[in-house]
Amino acid sequence: MVAKDLTGKKKAIVKADAEGLTELPGRFPAASTKAEPRPTPVSAMNLRAQAQRLHKEAHVFYFVFKHRGTRWYARLVAICTAGYLLSPIQLIPNYIPVIGVLDDVLVVFLGAKLVQKITPAHVLAECRGLADAAEVRRKEEIRSTAAVAASVVIATLWIAAAIIASVLMAGYLRH
After folding, report:
1. CA distances from 109 to 4, 56, 81, 145, 152 (A)
2. What is d(CA 111, CA 85) in angstroms, rounded to the nearest whole number?
3. How many CB atoms lie within 10 A of CB 123?
4. What is the 8-class DSSP label of residue 44?
5. What angle do CA 110, 112, 118 make, to 5 degrees?
6. What separation in angstroms does the CA of 60 have from each of 10, 87, 116, 126?
7. Is residue 165 scored above 90 in pLDDT?
8. Alpha-carbon 17 to chain mean position
């Protein structure tokens, strides 16, 4: 017969008497009672940070593709990877719930790793610097007054269009 004590350890019970249980020590391995801290996985990064990192890597691969020092077969891998993602013909269609997207993720992951491996290190470093500079320029452009004003105007137009469409639909449905 097997029982668990208050700490959750398994023990084999030989016989039960009025004073307590007699156990057979050593029959079951002792469980660790100390909680060891687990390292935080990389996937625990927030979604926004992952999206920014992915955007930066896409920019890096764009610059790798355009760089003169990139070999032709690295460009071919980059084009084939992007072509597979944008192609309407795929091995597993995207409308299949999970597997349809997973094959795209796998192709992008393998394509990115292969491009990183076959691109010379100095070209990759230079392209990372160009991507960093482009990100800084993009952030500066976003902060401009014209960009903020344009965003407000576009949002106002979308909200106005939604309200007008709702009023028209309500009027149509009443008749």
Report:
1. 46, 15, 9, 38, 37
2. 11
3. 17
4. G
5. 100
6. 55, 22, 10, 9
7. yes
8. 58
Q: In what order do the strands lie in the sheet with 10-17?
A: 2-4, 10-17, 20-24
Query: Rg of the chain's alpha carbons, rounded to an integer?
Result: 30
Structure tokens at 175: 């008749």
Q: What is the pTM of this model?
A: 0.49
Structure tokens that stand for 40 in this block: 């935080």
pLDDT recorded at residue 159: 96
| Least reliable range by pLDDT among 9-18, 79-88, 131-140, 159-168 | 9-18
- Largest Cα–Cα distance in the chain? 86
Give the model confidence (pLDDT) of 102-156 as tens digits: 888 888 889 889 988 999 999 989 988 998 898 888 777 666 777 788 889 999 9
Q: What is the DSSP string of 87-115?
A: -S--SS-TTSTTHHHHHHHHHHHHHHHHH
Distance CA 123, CA 76 (A): 16
- Scan for tokens 């990372």, then name that residue: 128
Q: Report the mean per-residue pLDDT for the chain.
A: 77
Phi, psi angle pair for 143, to nearest 5°: -80, -5
